Amino acid sequence: MNDLLKSLCSVHSPSGEEIHMKKFLLNYFESNLERFAVEPEIYCGEEFQDCLLVVFGRPRVAAFAHMDTTGFTVRYRDQLISIGSPEIDGDEILTGADPLGEIECRLNLNDENQLHYKFGRGIHSGTSLIYQENFRDHQSHIVSPYLDNRVGIYNLLKVAETLRNGVLVFSSWEEHGGGSVPYLVKFLYERYRINKMLVSDVTWTSDGIALGGGVVISNRDRNIPRKSFVNRIMDITIENEVPFQIEVEAFGSSDAKEIQQSPYPIDWCFVGPPVENAHSNREKISKKDLKAMVDLYELLMESL
Predict the structure, then answer these.
(1) Pairwise CA distance, residues 1 & 273, whole Å
(2) Of 285, 212, 268, 219, whose CA–CA distance to 243 is shortest?
(3) What confidence category does residue 267 fall into, taking pLDDT thresholds of 50, 70 and 90?
(4) How far is CA 272 from CA 13, 58, 83, 91, 205, in A?
(5) pLDDT digit string (tens) for 57-87?
(6) Mind listing the domains of the chain with CATH numbers?
(7) Mean pLDDT throughout 134-141?
(8) Phi first, then psi: what are they for 165, rounded to 5°?
């Protein structure tokens, strides 16, 4: 289980460079066809940019997982600009590559909260950097950079093994404002008339959401899904005794924002596990919550 998640966490794909994760996923699906109950049809190409849609059977439900991560862009001299909203302590190790070779440098946060890098040479402007890989597999939990949203991708790859009818959607730019979901939703609704969508992502721990409490079903964050659809998901969860938590928050968002704002009559819900230390280089997830996520998605993709 964790070898796949570790491999996903090692892929360099901050917002705008999802091409690397797309290539990883294409290779995964092409190399593991014998693992799937149904051979899928894969949609990719320029009309989908760096996104990927994997269609099984006669789909009624689509599940979205974003492929990008937070990170940093080299500006001029030794300056850095955040990609998305990474949580920074200062002194983290960053990695990447430019035309001169591989990079392993240190992040510096100065007294004015400006970001810089420390490296033995100048790094080409426009180069992206991410947190150094540091995957730690413990008995009850996993700690690593970029569990957001490698966990969501992992979930869909596990669900693919038993899925007979459904679409797995791998989207771009979620961490930095979105932009790919509208055309993906348009394709799914107009081609397959899909009007039920799930968001396979992670949420943050809070005073009401804890590690080990089960997969999170979100009643609302900044966006509010249709209550009848959420209730249907809860009924399936309870009936099958999958451990879960109910999230009620005023802030935060995901690919669900653009699904809800689409011109199509689509029901959606965020379903995913909580993480501690979100957007840092030490995100932490419970293995119990991850198992509950996979178990529930296997049910929802076929039952909704």
Answers:
(1) 16
(2) 212
(3) very high
(4) 21, 24, 23, 30, 12
(5) 999 999 999 999 999 999 999 999 999 999 9
(6) 2-69+136-303 (3.40.630.10), 71-131 (2.40.30.40)
(7) 96
(8) -140, 120
